[in-house]
What we know:
By secondary structure, this protein is an alpha/beta fold.
Amino acid sequence: MISRNAKLLFYLSLGPVMGINGWIYRHLRAPRAGASGVHLGPGQKTYLNGWINVDANCLTARCDVWADFRRPLPFHDDTIPAFYSHHVVEHLPDLRQHFHEVFRCLIPGGVYRVGGPDGDSAIAKFVAGDNAWFSDFPDVRASTGGRLDNYLLCRGEHLHILTIGFLTEMLLDAGFEAPVKCLPTKETRHPELFSECLAVEWESDYDFPHTLIVEARKPRPTALSD
Length: 226
Ligand SMILES: C[S@@+](CC[C@H](N)C(=O)[O-])C[C@H]1O[C@@H](n2cnc3c(N)ncnc32)[C@H](O)[C@@H]1O
């Protein structure tokens, strides 16, 4: 795993260039109509064909657009039918800003499928003392508390603990409607939008999943009645 200091240095030195690159993409290349879905943070292994894959990591990740999610997303208002992110939002300092940005870019009726480390499962497994639920990544820890710290904070890489209550609160605050929890076992309310995404998700744990996934929709304007 890349050290936290190396990442800080990366964002400090390349952040402004990424900002310019995102601005140029948004104003010269971003689709205005008929866009495909946007995949935020594919990393090295989960590039989605047919989607616009966006990542800050220009060194080892595979992406179509190089941009920093801490800045305004490089898309126009009301243009993107679906956003997908998997184990990304817990890395962002300002969740409120992120969900508002995704909401801005989605078309009315568009959907965000967002997932990250499941805080509810992790806390339940900590209380139950179930060491086996946790892994040795990024550090080998013998105690349940150490393993909880590993999972939730990931050596300081994660800036948020994602629970269903918290994600629902943030999504509603941004204006989304009907946030729905989906199991990471390829469950979705929108197979027409997310079938390619399900192909890169990997979990089979129904009872205490490691990934918390929520789908939420941007409301369509309601018809005015007289
Ligand atoms: C833990 S990886 C997840 C990769 C993949 N989605 C998966 O589930 O295996 C997080 C990804 O988010 C990207 N990322 C994190 N913070 C970001 C930011 N501020 N702007 C753009 N990309 C970011 C990282 O570069 C990395 O590719």
